Amino acid sequence: MPVGVQNYTTHFFVTGDPLIYGVDVSIILVSLAIVYVLTRYRKWGWLWREWLTTVDHKRIGIMYLIAALLMLFRGGVDGLLMRTQLAWPNMHFLEAEHYNQIFTTHGTIMILFMAMPFIFAMFNIAVPLQIGARDVAFPYLNAISFWLFFFGALLFNHSFVIGGSPDAGWTSYPPLADLPFNPGPGENYYLLGLQISGIGSIATGINFFVTILKMRAPGMTLMRMPLFCWSVLAACIIIIFAFPVLTVALALLLIDRIAGAHFFTMFDGGNPMMFVNMFWIWGHPEVYIVVLPAFGIFSEVVATFSRKRIFGYSSMVASMLAIAVISYFTWVHHFFTMGAGPGVNSFFAVATMIIAIPTGVKVFNWLMTMFQGRIRITTPMLWTLGFIPNFAIGGATGVMLSVAPADYQYHNSYFLIAHFHQVLIGGTVYGMLAGMYYWWPKMFGFKLDERLGKWAFWFFNIGFYVCFLPQYLVGFMGMTRRVYIYPPGLGWEIPNLISTIGAYLMGVGFILIVADVVYSIRYGERDLTGDPWDGRTLEWSLSSPPPHYNFARIPRVDSRDAWWEMKQRRQRGEPMEEPEPLRPIHMPKNSGVPFILCVAFFVAGFGFVFNWYVFSVIGLLTVAICLFHRSFDYDTDYYIPVEELEHHEAALGRT
Amino acid sequence: MAHTSEGAARHAASGPPWMHIIGFVLSIVLTLAALWLVLGHAMRPAPLFFTIMVLAVLQIAVQLFFFMHITESYGPAWHVWMLALGVVLVVAIVAGSIWIMTFGGDVAY
Amino acid sequence: MEAVHGDLHTAAVRDVPLEHTTEDGQLRIFGFWIFIVSDLILFSTLFATFAVLRTHVAGGPGPAQLFDVGAFTAETLILLIFTVVYLPGVM
Ligand code: HEM
Ligand SMILES: [Cu+2]
């Protein structure tokens, strides 16, 4: 092989690590398998028509869900690799550099490519159905959002086998992330992957904000909205205000790296702490973006499975809106140790403590909802019950961290690691899994098996405490985050070993969830009524899965828990209103352009990663062409005629 | 129900679009005033900075009212609330960053 | 019952400017405003960076040397004039 080519390939493809060769092989095998299956069963057309070009929020939601679960898997494997390395002193399982890459990709994937798509999955699946709408405000933009996320994540994940992974942490602080200390494409992957998916996130925030405020069914005032919709509204407000800051931070760091600017460099007037400042202006609100929708889901689940109205509805709304605003005034607690001075640190310490108050209010409301309710312990309810103690502990340790002088001790120790896993896993992941189990029958028409689901929960929940409680302890003993090896004799061995065991228990929990899905596809209880949980909100008034136009007739709402009230009325034998005659339904047309547009973003991003600007130019030109095309495309929608509607509704057994 | 009487009136009225012409003139005047103040060193730095800021805010108001029709909407004016919250957070970001980053003897501004 | 704001399904469309007369138009205008709000934050972050790093020129040229007064004045005026170029069309 000519030297040039060889040189090139060894730099382009990551070589030398058996783990990575293993991944190479499995990627190739899986890709071949997918291509084979699609070709063998002639499914390419189906894939394109039904999924890649869809603008239906339900399908987009399902794609988000699949992607989130895949990323949960990859991030989880990263986590287990790290825990294996840390199980015992002086382990030689991972090299230092490899360890750095793994904790970086773990954190980035879990927040940006697992938690975000998971909440977006829930937005898409539930919001339009809960407010009685036929789709989101901008279905085409919704498809673009999904594909931007998808190709951003795809780009980021390429780093593992092509060019090398980023290794400066999920926070990507300069100067470590700047060119002199971090040559090679790894950090570029991080910057471009996040930038591309971040554009999609802003669009989603705007889309659902508009959807919720403008597309509610007649009679559904804001204060009659299901709490999940309120939580999405609050999360969208934060997205709209926080994500642009990340966009700027990433863009400036990229300019530093590829154009030799000095925003955040060590020398020539740069100030690395300015990046840290901007990162957390986004970063703290971001943690509330991912946890508020979980709060919303818990509220739905608690009410449904206690067969009661949610307790303290208006205080729930008020506390979510308060969190949305206050979360914007706490960001410095992530870098108290920078030493901005007593004035700054006290202000942000107090603001941080204040945010614990509305959170506490919510916990009491959930408990009061269960009080004297007729509780059914189903899998979604189990995840909700598991969440409450988790969040109590996570909130308490958060308040400990927010005490600025004390934080000089806790900062960047395993205590911090335990805190944020407690809130992110115990809050967001539990919430999303509760939501997944809760809305699964609505999406797919069958329930997930309860027995396997409960096994999965218990493995995961017990594993969680076994994994993270020792980390608080070992944090107090002085173990800092992001160390890949430690000597014996510090008393860290046993807590670390226990922690690793817990991590594997959580791994078992995850496998059981996957097993549950596989098992239930075949044997799961079919949902023929559309209302398997005896639900309270409008999505349960539809068949499972709902028809593509959702509501043949837009429902009229005159109270909270609209579907529950309708059922009560029917039970009392009150006369039902004559159903209105069907009318043609206005629907958006499918389009392949969002997909192509985002492939173009991917190509452009790839060009920036490797400084191959030809790709960037081609990619960005294609983006421009796609946007232009959309501006002059007037053939974007159609009407479903009444006969077809009647036909559909009859097939679903509804008139 | 529709909070758009003003907008509707504007559209209904025929004749020269006075609103736009007034807005245009105002925006030019505000711009040139700022330019003149700075280039002519008309004031000391602190009051100059303050005056420029006031002119900028006026300019924003002109754009919002005369060209972007901020008052026109169907239903509640949620966008005005969001803009207002946005302004609060803009202050938080800009003033906050300056406050936070002015540490360790580094004079940021 | 009092009419519900934010509900487009029953939108009785009268007395509203042309671009507000369709459901689609209303959604887009509202979405556009929210997009503007996000842009507000984006630019304020750029301003914040400028404010913080303004004096960090490391001995290089400062604003006085870099900013081309003639060019940016012209750009600003062109930009402002663009807000009224459609006027001859409607007059
Ligand atoms: C009661 C509310 C909370 C309080 C008072 C609180 C407080 C804090 C403080 C002070 C820190 C910084 C500690 C340090 O770096 O030394 C921190 C870190 C963190 N918190 Fe929280 N927190 C709360 C809730 C949450 C929630 C709900 C989430 C996510 C769902 C979360 C996620 C995180 C993350 C990811 C970090 C660390 C990020 C990193 O450095 O990599 N926190 N928290
Ligand atoms: Cu925080």
Question: Explain this structure to me?
Answer:
The complex is a heterotrimer of chains A (655), B (109) and C (91). With 655 residues, chain A is mainly alpha-helical. Chain A has two domains: 1-42; 43-651, Cytochrome C Oxidase, Chain A (Up-down Bundle). Chain A has helices spanning 3-12, 18-40, 44-52, 57-86, 96-130, 139-158, 186-214, 227-259, 272-306, 313-326, 342-370, 379-401, 404-410, 414-444, 450-476, 493-523, 562-571, 593-609, 613-631, 642-651; strands at 585-588, 637-640. The longest helix of chain A is centred in the N-terminal third of the chain and has 35 residues, at 96-130. Chain A is globular, with a radius of gyration of 25 Å. In chain B, α2 (18-39) packs antiparallel against α3. The N and C termini of chain B lie far apart (48 Å). Chain C is mostly helical and 91 residues long. Chain C is built from four helices and no strands. Classes of the chains: A mainly alpha (655), B mainly alpha (109), C mainly alpha (91). Chain B binds chain C through residues 1-2, 4-5, 7-8, 10-11, 16-17, 20-21, 23-24, 27-28, 31, 35, 39, 63, 67, 69, 72-76, 78-79, 82-83, 86-87, 89-90, 93-94, 97-98, 101, 107-109, and chain C through 3, 5-8, 11-12, 14-18, 20, 26, 29-30, 33-34, 36-37, 40-41, 44-45, 47-49, 51-55, 69, 73, 76-77, 80, 83-84, 87, 90-91.
